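Q: Given only this backbone (88 positions), what sequence would you predict?
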């Protein structure tokens, strides 16, 4: 990992929403509604965190019927693994 990756990691860890969502998306793709239900959070909170993760180029999305589906970018799995290991 390079210096930029560690900056991204610190931004992720600064928000429990970003961290939890990223870890969940590393398991499987989800819609914002699924994430909101799972974490018992309001949709705007989830959408904001997803937008920030997308801005950091950690997740991608696509339209699927009437919802957006989000997943972790394969090239960023090293960052996810680092965070998972840190949580153990």
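A: Predicted residues:
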């Amino acid at each position: 990992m390079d210096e930029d990756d560690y900056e991204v990691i610190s931004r992720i860890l600064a928000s429990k929403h970003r961290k939890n969502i990223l870890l969940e998306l590393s398991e499987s793709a989800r819609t914002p509604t699924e994430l909101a239900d799972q974490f018992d959070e309001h949709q705007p909170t989830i959408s904001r965190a997803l937008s920030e993760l997308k801005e950091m180029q950690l997740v991608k999305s696509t339209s699927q019927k009437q919802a957006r589906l989000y997943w972790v970018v394969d090239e960023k799995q090293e960052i996810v693994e680092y965070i998972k290991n840190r949580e153990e």
